[in-house]
Write a structure and sequence with these properties.
- The complex is a heterodimer of chains A (447) and B (716).
- Chain A is of the alpha+beta class.
- Chain A has a domain of 48 residues.
- Helix content of chain A is 39%, strand content 18%.
- In chain A, the strands form 3 sheets. In chain A, strands 1, 2, 3, 4, 5, 10, 11, 12, 13 and 14 form a 10-stranded mixed beta sheet that branches.
- Chain A starts with 6 loop residues before the first strand and ends with a strand.
- Chain B is α/β, with parallel strands linked by helices.
- Chain B has an 8-stranded mixed beta sheet with strand order 15-14-13-16-17-18-19-20, with helices on both faces. In chain B, strands 1-2-4-7-9-12 form a 6-stranded mixed beta sheet, with helices on both faces. Chain B has a 4-stranded mixed beta sheet with strand order 5-8-10-11.
- The chains are: A alpha+beta (447), B alpha/beta (716).
- Chains A and B meet through α1 of A and α16, α17 and β15 of B.
Chain lengths: 447, 716
């Protein structure tokens, strides 16, 4: 049943996603967001004065743009009067931004919201270790050169110790710099790395190395196919590369044409050298990119003459053990399904974020397990069977990458555009969230 | 004196402090006109006799402190005696101000130029606001005069020799921050607290019993000490003189005179003597033709700033589209985005768009390097240019400028295609230098929303834009484009559609004539040097042809031959040129040699044989060379202005020629120059050259002959 307060998605675009350390590495995340937002407006020819709010997901929280949502909005030419803010829910930050917008529109508070996310994982800073920070703190307080001089000597000694730690590669050394992207991917509650949480799932759900590599290969093959067949063009906007603009990036840097099982098999387990199965080949890479969607109330979209892609039926977030965070989708999806009054079998398409191949395959098993549903989810029976034909049909994060603060919106965009192509009525976008949560959003195609 | 001037300057007592408010009645700005000066004198006399312990001078105008002297009065000064009298009265009043028994503070917010600046220099202390409207300086040399109310004498004593020369010789106004940095302002505060801070300062002067400030400052610091010593002074002056000569080519006497006044008066302890030297210098330059011409040019530019193109109200332009990201497109994107307009560039491929972005980005990087903008402004400007290969965003655009290939068929097709993607009320403009706007408008479904804009290359440097009215272009479209041009920081001149519009129509006979002189044995160097050194053009006709592109020159000449028949003809050497590979600066082969980065070098001596001629014999005088070229322009202009009404007034012709071709401003423009030599002389000389050189193309036009017969002028 349609209602004027239904929340519809008018359009969605994203920058190309580029593996960290490649072509977008020097681009500030506010600039990534700026281009995506500006092109969203260009594509929809929207009068920017109509935008009630801009909500942007981001996890890196760049020190020179702490409320990066506002910086993105102003950079993109959104009027100064328009409010803008940043949301952070780790891997689901850009799903959180959409759900924020959904609530505000649904309640009648607002009519037009831009939601999205931006992340540049190349630019997450390397910080001073506490030992050196302490010396700096004292140096800043020094009132005279005579006070500063001994501290400078101390600093020099500490720097030498740091160089030693770097040369020996001893990351546990208290002088070793703090690499924030690694800290960010370490669970602060359980004290283990995200890769290690996936290792737990691989072992507990019996996901073999070969199964993971095959799934990774599938992701690359599907992403390459989608790119070659032009489907990615529908969601990617060109990104002019500073400083010389000799190149305008129009495709993702991630999907590998000609990836093979042999090549994948050669890679060593990264997180558990002894008994592990998770490699850099069957996990998603660190990535830079941004994605934006334009949300409206149905009545506003109709008044402005837009033909939206989809309507947001529901969303849901749920928590679980941080060390098994990869199963988050299995916990969150039933919440969203219940709110929508739908069944898992209603989904014609599913976008389930590929943090790790092992984690996706473990989710698939858990979705199909009666026992898991009963013991962990408190449901009477399994959530539903995952049909691979409907899952991540244009590839996923293993190939495309996972710019943490932007992925949630990317999943929604890819899903709604494919739903329209296939004339599918219901679709699911879901992801696992570092720290032990899952997020899910259900879309219904606008007929 | 009318009573209203009593209201123009008022003394508001604040206990022991007098606040003098300047608010010229019936004017938007404060200026030091004769009645204002008389009122000021009265006020100063009153203050001299008063018991106030301090005086504050402030303006009640929103963005103006004192804009300067009354230029209209300067314009009308015609003999030295008259000038000396007027200036010495002004100097006397500034001296009275300086000699007030109590300390004085100027509280400056808004423009403070010329006489206004000299006014604050005669105060003891100067406090300014940080507002962007606060701009202080001595622009007199721009008008061919020099600071005559003591500015040349007092400024060096306050900011030092080097800094004062920078201010006086360049004639540019300084933003508050810069004025503070060089010591022209003693304090700089936020505009909201300017009044309060000034009053506090005055009160402190009173309570601390601080007296007058000594004017004979010792120079501060070692370097300044050296620069102002007898040895350093000589070095500074000779350097400054070299700089001035290099910039002015010796055509502008005012900066040199200002320099010599500063030179003669620096360190002089006898104020009266120094003032005498200054006013004599002023009187010498104020009556010159150059000064009158520069004032004329000043009025031309002011006219455009205040003028509306038509009675129809211009529509606001927030978002601008540009089709084609080439040199012109990229340049237009730069000037628009630089002034805060959102720009969407569209081209057929990303490679072209990347080049357009780089073009704009490189120009902003230069500003960044010079610290004219900071990195935040750089990003904002860069961000406001977005790109696309499709028509997304076009429904949001208020105006689109098409800057694609100069081909009527292609342009018409693209115009139709683009118009279909735009809002029905949005305006589409073609940037063209040679095609008919009226004919092109047939490609547009609503030609009233279609017009032309002729930008000059390089766009970021050339101030002129010809706004071209097609046969069906509406008034509102013209008004909108006129205002848009101004918003982009350019000078618009509205022209009627016609071959070459105005500027190129006049330039072409000039370049064609140079080719004939070349054919007759004149050397490239001889002709170009005559135009630059003797006449004052920024470059000679051969260098200009190289800039424009030799292929383009010939192409356009052929278009003109078709349009104008006999009076345009092609020198035989141009026909040889047409078949050669020489394209001018763009391929590094022309009348001149070019370095790999496009810098013009020596004359390419192979050009003579390449065009089938022997070594030059230089048969003509430089007078003939200059007259044939310039008079050919005047001749063509008589037809364009009077017969074809391409523009309405001689003012527009002069503005366009100065802004579009660099026609020497000290000559006041092409037609002001024509009037100064007289239509009779021009027509006679053209007649002479036409018969002597068997060049019927040079025969004076019917209208010019008619003018000559009654010695008429272009300016009525």
């Amino acid at each position: 049943m349609k209602s004027p307060r239904d929340v519809v998605i008018v359009e969605g675009v994203r920058t190309p996603f580029a593996k960290s350390g490649t072509k977008l590495k020097k681009v500030h995340p506010a600039e990534l967001g700026q281009v995506a937002l500006r092109e969203l407006i260009a594509k929809t020819n929207l009068d920017v004065n109509l935008i009630d709010e801009v909500i942007i997901g981001n996890t890196g929280n760049p020190v020179d743009a702490v409320n990066i949502g506002r910086v993105v909005a102003l950079n993109a030419g959104i009027p100064q009067k328009t409010s803008a803010y940043t949301v952070h829910r780790n891997c689901a930050s850009a799903l959180e931004s959409i759900s924020n917008g959904y609530e505000k529109i649904r309640s009648g508070t607002m009519d037009v919201v831009v939601a999205g996310g931006t992340e540049n994982m190349s630019q997450m800073p390397t910080l001073l270790p506490q030992k050196i920070q302490d010396i700096f703190d004292k140096l800043f307080m020094a009132k005279s050169p005579s006070q500063a001089l001994p501290l400078a000597g101390k600093l020099l000694g500490a720097e030498l110790k740091q160089i030693k730690a770097l040369l020996t590669g001893n990351m546990k050394d208290e002088y070793f710099p703090v690499i924030s992207v690694m800290q960010g991917l370490t669970d602060p509650f359980a004290g283990i790395n995200m890769g290690q949480t996936a290792e737990i799932l691989a072992k507990e759900f019996g996901i073999s190395r070969v199964m993971q590599d095959e799934f990774a290969l599938r992701s690359h093959n599907l992403a390459v196919k989608a790119t070659k067949e032009g489907r990615m063009k529908a969601e990617i906007v060109p990104f002019p590369l500073p400083p010389d603009y000799k190149e305008i990036l129009t495709e993702d840097i991630g999907p590998r044409d000609g990836q093979t099982m042999e090549a994948l098999a050669k890679l060593k387990p990264f997180f558990d050298r002894q008994t592990g199965s998770i490699t850099v080949g069957n996990a998603c890479p660190l990535t830079d990119g941004a994605a934006m969607v334009l949300l409206m109330s149905r009545e506003k979209a109709e008044a402005l003459g837009y033909k939206p892609y989809a309507r947001i039926r529901s969303y849901g977030f749920a928590g679980l053990e941080p060390e098994r965070m990869g199963l988050g989708p299995v916990y969150a999806t039933p919440v969203a399904l219940k709110r929508a009054g739908l069944n898992f079998s209603d989904f014609g398409l599913i976008e389930l974020n590929e943090a790790f191949a092992a984690q996706v395959l473990a989710c698939a098993k858990a979705f199909e397990s009666d026992e898991f549903a009963k013991t962990k989810l408190g449901l009477g029976g399994k959530v539903g069977a995952v049909d691979l034909e409907k899952l991540n049909v244009n590839g996923g994060a293993i190939a495309l990458g996972h710019p943490v603060g932007a992925t949630g919106t990317r999943l929604v965009i890819t899903l709604m555009k494919e739903m329209q192509r296939r004339q599918v009525q219901f679709g699911l976008a879901t992801l696992c969230i570092g720290g032990g949560q899952g997020g899910a959003m259900i879309l219904e195609t606008e007929a | 004196m009318s009573t209203s001037h009593l209201e123009s300057i008022k003394i508001i007592p604040k206990q022991e402090i007098a606040i003098v408010e300047i608010d010229m009645v019936g004017e938007k700005v404060n200026k030091l006109s004769t009645p204002m000066m008389a009122r000021l004198k009265d006020v100063l006399q009153e203050l001299t006799k008063s018991s106030y312990k301090a005086v504050i001078f402030t303006s009640k105008k929103a963005k103006i402190f004192i804009a300067g002297a009354d230029i209209e009065e300067i314009k009308n000064l015609n003999n030295q005696e008259q000038v000396l009298k007027a200036v010495s009265q002004g100097q006397e009043i500034m001296n009275m101000l300086e000699d007030l028994p109590m300390p004085t503070i100027a509280s400056v917010h808004g423009a403070c130029a010329g006489g206004g600046c000299e006014f604050i220099l005669a105060c003891d202390y100067r406090i300014g606001s940080e507002d962007p409207s606060t701009r202080i300086g001595l622009p007199e040399t721009q008008l061919g005069i020099l600071p005559g109310f003591g500015g040349c004498v007092r400024l060096p004593r306050i900011v030092g020799l080097q800094a004062s020369l920078d201010v006086i010789l360049a004639g540019k106004l300084l933003p508050g921050k810069k004025a503070y940095k060089i010591g022209l302002l003693d304090k700089l505060v936020h505009p909201a607290i300017l009044q309060e801070e000034t009053l506090k300062w005055a009160q402190k002067l009173v309570t601390d019993k601080v007296g007058k400030r000594r004017k004979h400052f010792k120079s501060s610091g070692l370097i300044n000490g050296f620069l102002e010593g007898p040895l350093g002074r000589g070095v500074v002056f000779s350097q400054a003189k070299k700089g001035v000569l290099k910039l002015t080519g010796g055509h502008y006497p005012a900066p040199l005179k200002a320099l010599s006044v500063v030179c003669a008066t620096i360190g002089m302890s006898d104020r009266d003597r120094a003032m005498k030297i200054e006013r004599e210098g002023f009187a010498e330059v104020a009556v010159t033709e150059v000064s009158k011409n520069l004032i004329h040019v000043y009025y031309l530019t002011e006219m455009v700033k205040k003028q509306n193109a038509t009675a129809a109200k211009a529509k606001e332009v927030k978002a601008l589209g540009i089709l084609g990201a080439g040199t012109m497109g990229g340049g237009i994107a730069y000037v628009a985005a630089d002034k805060g307009i959102q720009v969407r560039m569209k081209d057929l491929n990303y490679e072209a768009l990347g080049k357009g972005l780089k073009h704009a980005s490189d120009l902003w990087k230069k500003l960044l390097k010079r610290k004219s903008i900071d990195r935040y402004q750089f990003r904002q400007k860069m961000n406001s240019v977005s790109i696309g290969v499709d028509y997304s965003d076009f429904k949001r655009l208020d105006v689109v400028i098409e800057a694609i290939v100069e081909d009527m068929k292609i342009k018409q097709r693209v115009i139709g295609e683009t118009a279909a993607q735009m809002r029905p009320d949005a305006i589409l403009v073609t940037n063209t230098s040679s095609l008919s706007v009226t004919e092109m408008s047939q490609g547009h479904p609503h030609p009233e929303f279609f017009a032309g804009m002729h930008f000059f290359n390089p766009v970021h440097k050339m101030p002129l834009v010809e706004v071209i009215r097609g046969a069906k272009t509406s008034d509102q479209t013209i008004s909108t484009i006129f205002e848009l041009t101004k918003k982009m920081g350019k000078m618009p001149v509205v022209v009627k559609d016609g071959p070459g519009f105005l500027v190129n129509r006049l330039l072409l006979p000039y370049m064609a004539e140079a080719a004939f002189m070349f054919q007759e044995g004149m050397s490239v160097g001889q002709v170009d040097v005559a135009y630059v050194k003797e006449f004052g053009m920024p470059m000679g006709p051969f260098a200009l042809m190289d800039e424009v592109g030799l292929d383009v020159c010939v192409k356009v000449l052929r278009i003109f031959m078709k349009a104008f028949g006999d009076r345009v003809s092609l020198a035989p050497c141009m026909e040889v040129l047409e078949k050669s590979t020489r394209l001018g600066k763009k391929n590094g082969q022309g009348f001149y040699k070019y370095s790999s980065d496009g810098q013009r070098g020596e004359v390419d001596e192979t050009i003579y044989s390449a065009l089938g001629l022997g070594q030059p014999t230089n048969p003509h005088t430089s007078k003939e060379c200059i007259e044939r070229g310039v008079f050919a322009m005047i001749n063509e202009c008589s037809r364009a202005l009077i017969e074809d009404r391409i523009v309405e007034t001689p003012h527009e012709v002069d503005l366009a020629m100065i802004m579009g071709t660099g026609f020497p401003p000290f000559r006041g423009g092409l037609l002001r120059y024509a009037d100064s030599v007289g239509s009779k002389y021009v027509a006679e000389q053209l007649e002479t050259y036409a018969s002597q050189r068997t060049a019927p193309r040079l025969k004076p036009s019917k209208v010019l002959s008619e003018m000559a017969s009654v010695k008429a002028k272009f300016y009525k």
